[in-house]
């Protein structure tokens, strides 16, 4: 496989990992165990920023590099992997947005409330770039007569 396919695979995995991380943090904020001592000092904002920097930021960069490397000739497989990553991120953010009404009031901050909306909106360009890459036609080479 070419390097751009591996970048697209890694990007897709990081998008899915980010969605899983956000869902797990939101699930933790819903079902907080009563007997844990550090709950009084738990703040979700730094953890969410950490997941953004570990998961979705590198995923977006890898998807962009994969797109730039393959936009000249187009690739259905790379475009579909980028689209799948965007769709999985959208689904994960939708699930985490649906969990907002169950979260304890102590943990509801602006970051907790707006991160799912922000990344649902940002998944649309990722999906559209992947769709554009699947529809890209290969350029015909120039014929040299001499």
Automatic annotation (TrEMBL):
Superkingdom as given in the UniProt entry: Archaea
Positions of transmembrane segments: 7-28, 48-69, 81-100, 112-133
Keywords, comma-separated and alphabetical: Membrane, Transmembrane, Transmembrane helix
Keyword presence, Membrane: yes
Record-given protein name: Uncharacterized protein
Originating species: Nitrosopumilus ureiphilus
């Amino acid at each position: 496989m070419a390097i751009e396919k591996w970048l697209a695979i890694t990007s897709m995995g990081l998008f899915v990992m980010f969605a899983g991380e956000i869902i797990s943090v939101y699930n933790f904020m819903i079902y907080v165990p009563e007997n844990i001592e550090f709950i009084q000092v738990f703040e979700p904002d730094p953890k969410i920023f950490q997941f953004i920097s570990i998961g979705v930021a590198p995923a977006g960069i890898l998807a962009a590099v994969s797109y730039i490397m393959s936009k000249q000739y187009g690739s259905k497989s790379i475009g579909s992997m980028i689209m799948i990553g965007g769709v999985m991120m959208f689904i994960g953010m939708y699930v985490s947005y649906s969990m907002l009404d169950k979260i304890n009031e102590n943990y509801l901050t602006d970051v907790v409330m707006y991160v799912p909306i922000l990344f649902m909106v940002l998944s649309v360009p990722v999906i559209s770039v992947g769709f554009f890459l699947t529809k890209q036609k290969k350029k015909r080479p120039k014929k040299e007569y001499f």
